[in-house]
Prior knowledge:
Largest sheet: none
Oligomer: single chain
Amino acid sequence: MTDISNDHSIASRPAHRRSDHNMREYYVYFAVIFVATLPLSFLTWTLSAARRMELPEKGPIKAAWSQAQIITPRIFSA
């Protein structure tokens, strides 16, 4: 009879697959949220630039990226 309780290679495989699946799901959610926030970010950036007559410190892509970085972990922690 074989004792597989000490075989770490068998025990680590499912956790690795689960981790890959979670990361892929995280990146999919991140991409969807990033694309969804881009139009609003461009609109906000344009209105801010027109109101102040100078370019805002943070560009529209950087603003959308930071919004996606804030929103996506909140989805996964819920």
